[in-house]
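Office hours follow-up: a student asked to see two folded examples consecutively, so here they are.
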Amino acid sequence: MSASFLEIVELPSGEIILRRSDEEHAEPLVTMFFSQELLDFLQGDQIEIAKAMLDTCIAEVGRKIEPDAGEYIPDHRVLH
């Protein structure tokens, strides 16, 4: 993955996407969609929840690609 800046965008459809900031029309790297039930519960805080989820995802991916951090990561490992 290139080192370009990333941005979180809420689309008119309600989807929240993560994309490279310099590629507005490219396919999103991540797409999130929250159910209406969850949106009602979050009361407008869905972007903050998406940021927290994406921060955790990016940190985990960063740990996965760090050169030999002394931990063996099996090829079949699944990120959740």
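And the second, which I mentioned at the end of office hours:
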Amino acid sequence: MSGEFIDSNVLVYLFSRPEPAKQAAAMDIVQRGLDGEGVISFQVVQETLNVITRKLAPEVTIADARAFLSDVLTPLWRVMPSEDLYRRALDIQERYHYGFYDALIVAAALWAGCTTLYSEDFQHGQRIERLTVVNPFLG
């Protein structure tokens, strides 16, 4: 199985009016994800909803957040928490010296069989097992 794991920072840029280039890149990734093999985890859902309803100026309304959950997040959401996922995250944390939450993102992407991780929080081009990190906002 192959797929594209989408980190929360990509989803948040969908709401970034001051950064239209990043917003457009995020829209392209999310649309492709919705049309095919896009994947997110429970952690991405939580982080995205928290940021868009609490940290953006102006904040997204709860009604808009509910619609975004139904229309975008839920169709992409394929990874739920499990003991095996947390154990894998701890192994990745130990091996790559990531913080736990970053390791959990990588573990979720690998668990889902993804080959690409879209994120600006990791080193662009880094390979982690079969996963390649892509920062879609470079250049």
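Two things to take away from it. Residues 14 and 28 are 10 Å apart (CA to CA). The chain has a mean pLDDT of 95.
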